[in-house]
């Protein structure tokens, strides 16, 4: 099965941060987010990156859990306290890959296919649920001013 087959079969759409997605779940029950705004308790999506596609640096106001399904491992890069952390989401624990990872709320992060070839299909769950009002795509210049020591990776993911 190819990435294009999965995009068609799972009815994925282009995502503003890069890659393809489709929301698969949105809880009917709501809670207040950190800003006091009502949000679904939880949401879930399919998310696919192919070849050189990237999830560009962005942040949201909720924790996000990533679950590996198939394809090539994905590298999730996170800026936390001025340091860069990379989690390899994939099926091979012997190679240091993990099948599940958490990106804490308010952290800048992005992702790419490890090695830049093939595709990776994952699911992402957000709690409280995702809302585009809580989504911020990074500005390269602003992020570089904040983290000048990470200029190279910021250029790759913005």
Automatic annotation (TrEMBL):
Domain DUF985: from-to ranges: 4-138
Kindly list the organism's lineage.
Answer: Bacteria, Pseudomonadati, Bacteroidota, Cytophagia, Cytophagales
What PANTHER family is this protein classified in? DUF985 DOMAIN-CONTAINING PROTEIN, RMLC-LIKE JELLY ROLL FOLD PROTEIN
A Pfam family that this protein carries is Cupin_5
Annotated InterPro entries: Cupin_DUF985, RmlC-like_jellyroll, RmlC_Cupin_sf, YML079W-like
Q: What is this protein called?
A: Cupin domain-containing protein
């Amino acid at each position: 099965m190819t990435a294009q087959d999965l995009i068609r079969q799972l009815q994925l759409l282009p995502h503003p941060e890069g890659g393809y997605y489709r929301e698969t779940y949105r809880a009917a029950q709501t809670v207040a987010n950190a800003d006091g705004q009502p949000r679904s308790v939880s949401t879930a999506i399919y998310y696919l990156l192919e070849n050189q596609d990237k999830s560009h640096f962005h942040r949201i106001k909720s924790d996000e859990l990533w679950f590996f399904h198939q394809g090539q491992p994905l590298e999730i890069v996170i800026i936390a306290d001025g340091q860069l952390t990379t989690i390899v989401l994939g099926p091979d624990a012997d190679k240091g890959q993990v099948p599940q990872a958490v990106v804490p709320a308010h952290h800048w992060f992005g992702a790419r296919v490890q090695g830049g070839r093939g595709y990776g299909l994952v699911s992402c769950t957000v709690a409280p649920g995702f809302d585009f009002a809580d989504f911020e795509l990074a500005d390269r210049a602003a992020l570089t001013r904040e983290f000048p020591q990470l200029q190279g990776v910021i250029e790759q993911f913005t």
